[in-house]
Amino acid sequence: QHQQDEHELVMISGAYFVVLVLVLLVLFVGDPESKSPLGRLSYFCTVWLPVVVCEKAEELPCGAPLVRRATCCVDYVCNKPNPLLQVFYLGLVIGGFLVFQLYAAPHIPNKYLSETHLYTSHLAVIVTLISFLVASRANPGYINKQNVEEFSHFPFDGLIFTPGDCKTCKHAKPARSKHCAICDACVGKFDHHCPWINNCVGERNYRYFLAFVFCTMCLLAYSSVGIFLILKDWVEERDLMNRFYYDRATGERMQADWTVVMTYVMVRQTYLVMLLFLSAVMGSVVFCFWAYHMSLIVRNLTTNEAGKWSSVAGFYKRRAKDLLKSKKEGTEPPPIPGPEEEAELLNPETAPALAERKYGQFPAKRPPNIYNRGIFANFREVLSPPSLRVAPPSAAARRARAKAKAAQAKQE
Predict the structure, then answer these.
(1) Please, which pLDDT band fits residue 395 given cuts at 50, 70 and 90?
(2) Rounded distance, CA 151 to CA 167, Å?
(3) Which residues are catalytic?
(4) Which one, 160, 231, 233, 408, has least CB within 10 Å?
């Protein structure tokens, strides 16, 4: 019976952990357009399965109206600004804090934690919530016709960013900017749209977003370590590792081991164990996310640009193979197929310059990222956005520039 209980505990814990990791990978890491195993799993769960379920549901009586309503709900959740994940985040933080106060605070102070932690726990939650509110409310750097010059400080690299106008906003599109389909606005140095704060992340609020992620990571780490020390003190205070236990089925007297003690702790301190597990898993995920953004800053990339450069890297990898093949055969390198011929080879919106030239017009090696100016300069760019350091042009200067452009257009 004892071995069976141990086996069941390990199996249940392992299954829960695997399912949780898979859900996180599919939702936040997997790319449905990728042909990798994770990409195929993401495509199955987020594209193929919903389509099949909707098709089957429409065949049922009154199924079509239900599918339309469900589609509207999914569109609202996934493609429209909404506070659902904000409410969910607040529920996790406030709910976890209440559990901590009800079940963990009575065990403080103890051998490992002083009475100070009764107050620092409140401070950690307050600071995290403040960072959440600031990141949610901060302007990411919305671009319009009046302030477009303020965000035109980055040069065009001629590869993933080329001069042009936003087709939706009908104004000049500065380098490193992007039109967010969810917010329906152009954002300077666009990184991504974050549903957790119901806001875009761009040049002017990236620092606040990083502070929010860092505070959340620290809160989860603080919670994990604190609860672990509380449970460790609880086990040592009762000397559970040196106790003997009896198997009710056989009456056998057994020396305690870690599996027996862990089972006992899970039964006696269920809420604390659940909070510890949740904090540790979510803290690990948030840490990986924060570390990824640190690596982007070191290279002066945004999440949006990292995806573009990934496509460019794939382009150059294929180009190298074609050049090697043409050199061996003594033939000319083939031109880039158009988007209609092979759309998945390269998206013209990813790197517009690549869609207009031939292989032979590019250097043998991939061009460097011109925006990477060194670690210190890159971090300074995040902490002190260039669009806030440059004084916006006066109204007279904007009118004069508009007249000059109009005159140039007439000459052309």
Answers:
(1) low
(2) 18
(3) 194
(4) 408
